[in-house]
Amino acid sequence: MLKKSRIILLALVTLVMASCGDIASKLGGMKTDSPDVLKKAQELAKANFDPAQWKVVSVDWSEGAGQDELTGEVASVRFYMIDKDGKAWQQSFHPSLGWKASDLDDTSFAEGDKYDDPKEYPALELDKLDAAKYTKIIEDAKALIPKGYTYKSMESFEMNTFDKSPMELVFNVVEEGKETVTNAGKTSTVYYQLRYSVSDDGKVKFEGAI
Rounded distance, CA 82 to CA 204, Å? Predict the structure, then answer.
């Protein structure tokens, strides 16, 4: 059984969200399922992480929470890096701040299932994923959405070099005919999250509901 999540919207709030979406689009906002975010991630990696100092091993991007849920608008692009001593770091970039970088934070993230030591993690070859491949992955995942559910947005996309599945994505979907419920004058959008993995050869597998 799929796990329900809800967004509660008042009519006025819905109108404001629509207007904000138009403004964001005009200001260059991008969608999580668009190749534009892949291109931006590639640009950010080249501009900010010198291969002589950092080994980027993971990148992910996701839509925002709250009013930005189900819009598919990119809220952040986050990188995980390993320094020369094998220590892990992370840094995020936010379109709402003109792609300004967050503070560089030391972090510990879960060990992958391909290597025992983060020092062994290969560098992420982000340029190997092009726009056509990215689009095909998303379309293949959409084709695996269970019958009776409709795609709303891509919650997140991740690439890394240390897991057996080098890519993972999460969709937000709604059940057809049961997209909203109304109670006490408030309308809630009822949605579910589906997780997919992607193999090295680009094959997409539906892993189930979150």
Answer: 28
User: What does the pLDDT look like over 112-141, one tens digit per residue?
Assistant: 889 988 889 999 999 999 999 999 999 999
119, 147 Cβ separation under 8 angstroms:
no
Q: What's the longest Cα–Cα distance across the chain?
A: 59
Q: How far are the Cα atoms of 23, 40, 76, 87, 179 from residue 98, in angstroms, in the given order? A: 15, 12, 11, 28, 34
Q: 161 with 124: CB under 8 angstroms?
A: yes
Q: Which contacts of 126-131 are long-range, i.e. CB under 8 A and separated by 24 or more positions? A: 126/41, 126/42, 126/45, 126/56, 126/59, 126/159, 127/42, 129/38, 129/159, 130/35, 130/38, 131/35, 131/38, 131/39
Single-letter residue type at 80: Y
pTM, to two decimals: 0.86
